[in-house]
Every structure is written in structure tokens, then in C-alpha cells.
Amino acid sequence: MDEQQEMKVKNPWHRPHIFLATAGIAAAIIIMVAIAVVQNKPLQQKYKYGIVLDAGSSHTSVYIYEWPAEKENNTGMVKQKQACSVKGPGISSYSKTPEKAGESLKECMDNATKTIPKHRHPETPVYLGATAGMRLLKMENDVDSKKVLASVEKSLQTYPFSYQGARIITGQEEGAFGWITVNYLSENFRKASRTVGALDLGGASTQITFVPGQQVESSDNSIDFRLYGNDYHLYTHSFLCYGKDQVLKLYLEQQIQPNADMTDNIILEDPCFHPGYNIIKSFQSVFDSPCVKNLTNSQKGQNFTHRGIGNWNKCNQAIKEVFNTSHCRYSRCSFNDVFQPPVTGRFGAFSAYFFVMDFLNVTPDHSLDEAKKILEAYCTTPWGTLKQKHRKVKEKYLAEYCFSGTYIVSLLEDGYKFTTNDWKNTEFIKTIKNSEAGWTLGYMLNLTNMIPAEAPDTPLLPYGGYVSLMLVLSFLIIVCIILGCIFFRRPSGPAHKEII
Ligand SMILES: Nc1ccn([C@@H]2O[C@H](COP(=O)(O)OP(=O)(O)OP(=O)(O)O)[C@@H](O)[C@H]2O)c(=O)n1
Ligand SMILES: [Ca+2]
């Protein structure tokens, strides 16, 4: 055997199957690494968008929601991207100048066109839902309410989005969609965990919604949903005129009644307003609502002096009077002959519940008694002292926090029959994971069918895990094949024999 032959035998690269096997393994590794790099490179997220306008009694907000395009039906995916507060009052205030209702939306809608990527505009749905302010206007003057809706509709149709309608939503919808929002954001549907009840306090109406422990005796108060494969039977009620602005009118009307016949010099000594608060108000401005009785002609041009005396006990007693508990046609009622099962579980209280309690620094850590003590101290504080201390707070809000805070405690305790324990289970919230609590998100999820009745079939492994597992298995198979080739193609005799 010459030297060259010797070399040929010793150098394994001269065996074609070993060369092929090594090349195969190298190729497999390169392919795997390449796939892993492509797979793990952050994908450019594609988002879709939806716009909901909350046309409340006191103001309008424009919410933009976004969600990853490929994950429409996964709960917890939709998030609030932006909220824009429309300047000026709620749309129902434009009943005498309806064209201004549409105009008022311009700034926030222009913002929305800038926020949402242009190529998504045509497919982005826009919904407007009006609540208690428009319900009251419709009761008062149907024609005016239609003009206001037509005005906002005209304005919204000028935008490049997919306009889906402007309507007055019912109190049941408002309650139920608020409940869906809170539980969607808390991921209670996905986890099939216990749901939380929803308490919404607006300017003109207030809603209570929860999963009751007993049957709902009145069909008006019952709503059923099937979400992600679970059935939910809800109790919900919306009290029109029991939002914080309208209930103040109810309260003032009751306070002023004994003096109602007097023709001049009407002084209202109000225990829910601060000592030193002394403001002349017109009957017309305070009692301009279908929630209170019509003014007599003589009252229309008349004024009264609204004088605070800051007496929390008296204030608390007087507020209880707005709840009529004298009659109940069911086994049990909250107030005003409205059926309500006993409250149960945890509650999230939002909108004005939050604004008021946040201002008063009442947190879930305070007991109900402690909350009352805080209110008592606030209500007895002289008006001048408060104005000095809170120069930046709107005077109207500042003056009304004593009334509103006391009303909130009374609504829960005397209205809905919350015990001290139920109070402990109640949290005042503004947002959940940066999305605002309110009916708008639930409304959009429902209208875009983004919460399916049945749980989508979930794959055994998440996509990433599936790809990785497949790669490892493929690699193992390739290695086995190659090793098999090497093993079975190995010559049985000594190497030099083959060469000779
Ligand atoms: N920082 C704020 C913002 C609002 N408010 C008051 O809180 C009340 C409720 O506000 P909101 O929930 O926005 O009511 P609307 O949606 O306008 O009313 P509704 O739901 O009854 O139509 C209103 O009296 C509003 O003036 C407040 O006290 N502090
Ligand atoms: Ca509202």
C-alpha cells in the first residue's frame, strides 16, 4: 500500500457517506437557526381600531380602542388607546341649537383621524351611544332629541370611518355593557372566575348590575349572556333621575317644597351645602328637568337664596327621602318599587362614584363609618376655607361634593341595602389596566361580535411552543436518519480491503 493510499484510508472526508452526513447535520442546524431567528424576530404588530362616543348627560367622550388584528376573539385583547373629552356640555344641552351638537365633536374626531393609521380608516367602526341626558330630552321633546341625533349623525358621517349609527341606548344596555367592560378587563371571562358587579353613577342616571344569588322576579331587570362557553344571568337596573346632577334637583325640590307658595324671599337653608355658601339661583336653572315637577308660571321668573348650613346628620336624613321605600310589589325592593335581589360579591364602582370618592380621599381601606366621618368633616368645613384650599377645582363641583358623597353612601346603604361588609367589597375605580371603566367598551365588543358565546378551541400548545417542538423533533429525526445511514453503510471488513 503506497502512502497516498494510506492517506485515503485515514481521512474520513474521503468517505462519501460521512461527508454527506456531516453536511446534512450542518444544513439542518443552519435551517433551524434561520427559522428560529425569523420566528423570534418581533413581528410587526397589526392593529385594528374601533371608536365609541359616550354621549353622556354632562359631557361626551370619544374612546378609541385597539386590538391585535389576528387575535380578535381572544378575551382581554382590546385596549383603550385614547380618550378625548369633548369641550362643552353633553349633546342633550344643544336641544335648542342642534347643529352645535355635531360641531362639538369636531376636535375629538379630528384627533381620531390622526391617531388611527390611514389605511385602517375605512374599516374602523364608529358608534355613538347617548345615555340619560338624551333619554330625558326624548321624554321632554321627542322632536328636539331627533334633531340632536341627526346633527351628530351628520357630523360623524363626514369622517373616513365606517359609521355604524348614533342612538339612545337603554338603561339595561348601559348597565349590562358596563358589567361586561369591567369583567372583560379583569379577565374574569377567560379565567371563568367569579364576576364583579358594576356600579355606574352618571349625571342623570345610575346603574347597578351583578350576578344575583336568587331569581330575578321582574323581566325588565334580567339579562342573560353566553360568553366564552359560560352562561351569565344578570340583574340590572338603571334609575333615571338618580344620577348625581338630577338627584340634586329631586333633593332641592323636596327641600324647597314647604316654601313653594311664598312669592318672594325664598331662602333654602341647606344642610348638604357648606356654612358660608350663599348663592342666589333661579328656579328655572335648578328645576329645568322632567325629573322634577313643572314649575308654576309665577315660579318661572323667580329666584331663591341657596344657603349652606353644613349639618351632615340632617343632610344624610334629608337625602334618604329621595328613596321611596313605602311600596314594593316584589319579595324585595331597592327603592321606588324596583325589584332587587340582595347584593352579593365584589363591586367595581366607577364614573362619579370614583370622581367624588377620589376627591374626598375615601378609599376601600376606609370602613363605612370612617367614610361617614370624612364626609361629616368635609360638609361642616366653611365654604370660604374650601375655596381657599382648592383653588383649581371647579366651584360647582367643590360645592356639591358634600351632597354627592353623602348621596353615594346613602344610595349604597339605604338604596341598594349594602351592609358594612358589602362596602368592604366595593372598590372605587376609574380604569382597569389603563382602559376606562364604563359601558362603551362592552358596547363595542358586543356589536363587533368580539366576545364569542363559545370558548374558541384552544390549541394544546401556544404557537411559539408548537413551532419549537416541531423543530426539535425534526432535528432529532434528521440526526437519527443520518446516524442510521452511517451505521448501516459501514463496511464489515477492514478499510484497506475495500480499497484493494
Ligand atoms: N372630574 C369630574 C368629572 C365629572 N364629574 C361629575 O360627575 C358626574 C357624572 O359624570 P359622568 O359619569 O361623566 O356622567 P355622564 O356620563 O355625563 O351622565 P349619564 O351617564 O347620566 O348620561 C357629572 O355630574 C359630572 O359633572 C365630577 O364630579 N368630577
Ligand atoms: Ca355615563
TrEMBL record:
GO BP, one example?
A: nucleoside diphosphate catabolic process
Task: Extract one GO cellular component term from the record.
Answer: caveola
The cofactor required is:
Ca(2+); Mg(2+)
Q: Which PROSITE patterns match?
A: GDA1_CD39_NTPASE (PS01238)
Enzyme active site: E174
Q: Which residues cross the membrane?
A: 17-38, 466-488
The record's listing under Pfam families reads:
GDA1_CD39 (PF01150)
Residues that bind ATP: G203, A204, S205, T206, Q207
Q: How does this protein lie in the membrane? A: Multi-pass membrane protein
Where does this one sit in the cell?
A: Membrane, Caveola; Membrane
Keyword terms, alphabetized? ATP-binding, Calcium, Disulfide bond, Glycoprotein, Hydrolase, Magnesium, Membrane, Nucleotide-binding, Transmembrane, Transmembrane helix
Q: What is its EC number?
A: 3.6.1.5
The protein's predominant localisation is membrane
Which reaction is recorded as catalysed by this protein?
Answer: CTP + H2O = CDP + phosphate + H(+); GTP + 2 H2O = GMP + 2 phosphate + 2 H(+); a ribonucleoside 5'-diphosphate + H2O = a ribonucleoside 5'-phosphate + phosphate + H(+); ADP + H2O = AMP + phosphate + H(+)
Q: What class of enzyme is it?
A: hydrolase
Q: Which residues form a coiled coil?
A: none
Q: Which family does it belong to?
A: Belongs to the GDA1/CD39 NTPase family.
PANTHER family, per this entry? ADENOSINE/GUANOSINE DIPHOSPHATASE (PTHR11782), ECTONUCLEOSIDE TRIPHOSPHATE DIPHOSPHOHYDROLASE 1 (PTHR11782:SF32)
Its job: Catalyzes the hydrolysis of both di- and triphosphate nucleotides (NDPs and NTPs) and hydrolyze NTPs to nucleotide monophosphates (NMPs) in two distinct successive phosphate-releasing steps, with NDPs as intermediates and participates in the regulation of extracellular levels of nucleotides. By hydrolyzing proinflammatory ATP and platelet-activating ADP to AMP, it blocks platelet aggregation and supports blood flow.
Quaternary structure?
A: Homodimer; disulfide-linked.
Name this polypeptide is given: Ectonucleoside triphosphate diphosphohydrolase 1
